[in-house]
């Protein structure tokens, strides 16, 4: 059977009558059950764009406070375009995937300078911009302008796969072609924005990954996965990336109460954000004590030598004293990182440059930091206030 015939067969249950029933049930369900989310109260394409970029790889609960703060600081595309990149990253700090923030800043500048402030209105115009893929373009066009545009994102990918009973890989080229064709075939010309929102909401609230609540699903009658009792098997799970454990070091290098902060360069992890001097060390696992470093305990001599050489090579600072502060465990993409946070005392800091600054703890807040950088900064601020309290 050709792919075209397979696709036609999967579309079979959705004739005009079925589709119209499905849309009606879905609309009624959505009007009763939809969550009140800030980006659903607006048709402003700028707001919708910001929300959609924030929601990539991030949960609704995490996004809501960021979205509200971001729009208070940058209420329109002109304000965003005129901002410093560091200011945009500071507002994004903690949300992760920072290329999203750098891209929205670039796109805002493009809209203001090249498009004279006119927000693009078609999917073709939108996908030509950095950071905007087919889904985000479809969401902006349908939510903001109420024009028909298909959408496929994590929730609808799962929902469509189950409705169609598609047991191939929905992330494969063939799977994507099928789901986008399906999405295109069901989006109505009347109220397409509300229709797309309702599909996403159903996927997120009812057709959930592990425990779909089929009994309360408005689309149960037309769901092939449910009819076959296969809703827990469809869609096939994505292959998990292999996790690599690594050890890295973040060193708060201090001289007379000022600390060295370094900006991550373009093309590297967390580009544009600032951090304490941070690096991996080859074979660090073999240099660490079995139970890890501990406060109050001396750093093993071989590791100490390696760290001194590395810090001198990296920033030209000659370490007098080095002590362990804490270990932070976190993950970045496929890496599980044990970050050893250290404090280094030096007699002189290297000269400040555009990307390297000596900063007092009171000014840490002025810099967009990585999540672990902020944790270390908070620890240093707390240490300094304790020291000050002890003096009085
Ligand atoms: Fe998902 Fe169950 Fe509804 Fe099918 S019936 S769309 S599996 S919630």
The percent range for strand residues is: 5-15%
Main CATH class of the largest domain: Mainly Alpha
Question: Low-confidence parts lasting 5 or more residues at pLDDT below 50?
Answer: none
What's the average pLDDT? 92
User: Helical residue percent?
Assistant: 40-55%
Could you name the CATH topology of the largest domain? Endonuclease III, domain 1
Helical region count? 16
How many structural units, i.e. domains? Answer: 2
Q: Structural class from helices and strands? A: alpha+beta
Which labels suit this protein?
binds iron/sulfur cluster; 16 helices; seven-stranded mixed sheet; Nucleoside Triphosphate Pyrophosphohydrolase; Endonuclease III, domain 1; elongated
Q: Could you explain how this protein is built, in words?
A:
- By secondary structure, the protein is an alpha+beta fold.
- The chain has 2 domains: about 5-225, Endonuclease III, domain 1 (Orthogonal Bundle); about 245-385, Nucleoside Triphosphate Pyrophosphohydrolase (Alpha-Beta Complex).
- It contains 16 helices and 7 strands.
- Strands 1, 2, 3, 4, 5, 6 and 7 form a 7-stranded mixed beta sheet that branches.
- The protein is elongated and about 80 Å long.
- The structure holds iron/sulfur cluster (SF4).
- Iron/sulfur cluster (SF4) binds near residues 206, 214, 220 and 225.
Question: SSE layout and pairings?
Answer:
Blueprint: H1 3-11, H2 16-33, H3 45-55, H4 60-73, H5 77-82, H6 85-92, H7 99-113, H8 123-127, H9 134-145, H10 154-164, H11 173-186, H12 192-205, H13 224-227, E1 244-255, E2 258-263, E3 274-275, E4 277-280, H14 284-287, H15 301-315, E5 319-332, E6 335-346, E7 356-359, H16 371-391
Parallel strand pairs: 1-6
Antiparallel strand pairs: 1-2, 1-4, 2-3, 2-7, 5-6
Bound molecules: iron/sulfur cluster.
The site of iron/sulfur cluster (SF4) has 14 residues, from helix 10 and helix 13.
């Amino acid at each position: 059977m050709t792919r075209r015939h397979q696709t036609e067969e999967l579309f079979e249950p959705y004739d005009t009558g079925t589709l119209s029933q499905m849309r009606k049930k879905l609309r009624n369900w959505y009007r009763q059950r939809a969550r009140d989310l800030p980006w659903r109260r607006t048709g402003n394409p700028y707001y919708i764009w910001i929300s959609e970029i924030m929601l990539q790889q991030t949960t609704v609960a995490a996004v809501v406070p960021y979205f509200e703060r971001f729009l208070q600081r940058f209420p329109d595309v002109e304000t965003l375009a005129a901002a410093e990149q560091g200011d945009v990253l500071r507002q994004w700090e903690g949300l992760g995937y920072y290329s999203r923030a750098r891209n929205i800043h670039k796109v805002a500048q493009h809209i203001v300078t090249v498009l004279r402030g006119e927000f693009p209105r078609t999917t073709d115009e939108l996908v030509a911009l950095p950071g905007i893929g087919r889904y985000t373009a479809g969401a902006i066009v349908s939510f903001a302008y109420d024009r028909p545009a298909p959408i496929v994102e994590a929730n609808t990918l799962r929902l469509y796969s189950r409705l169609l009973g598609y047991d191939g890989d929905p992330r494969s080229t063939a799977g994507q072609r099928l789901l986008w064709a399906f999405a295109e075939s069901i989006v109505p010309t009347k109220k397409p924005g509300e229709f797309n929102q309702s599909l996403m909401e159903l996927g997120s609230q009812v057709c959930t990954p592990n425990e779909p609540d089929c009994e309360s699903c408005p689309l149960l009658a037309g769901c092939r996965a449910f009819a076959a009792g296969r809703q827990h098997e469809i869609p096939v799970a994505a292959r998990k990336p292999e996790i690599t454990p690594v050890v890295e070091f973040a060193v708060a290098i201090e001289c007379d109460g000022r600390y060295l902060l370094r900006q991550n360069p373009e093309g590297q992890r967390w580009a544009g954000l600032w951090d304490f001097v941070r690096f991996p060390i080859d074979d660090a696992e073999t240099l660490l004590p079995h139970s890890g470093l501990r406060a109050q305990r001396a750093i093993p001599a071989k590791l100490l030598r390696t760290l001194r050489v590395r810090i001198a090579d990296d920033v030209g600072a000659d370490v007098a004293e080095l002590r362990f502060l804490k270990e932070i465990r976190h993950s970045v993409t496929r890496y599980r990182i044990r970050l050893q946070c250290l404090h280094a005392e030096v007699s002189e800091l290297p000269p400040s440059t555009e990307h390297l600054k000596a900063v007092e703890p009171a000014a840490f807040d002025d810099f967009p930091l990585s999540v672990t950088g902020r944790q270390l900064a908070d620890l240093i601020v707390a240490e300094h206030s304790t020291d000050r309290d002890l003096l009085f």
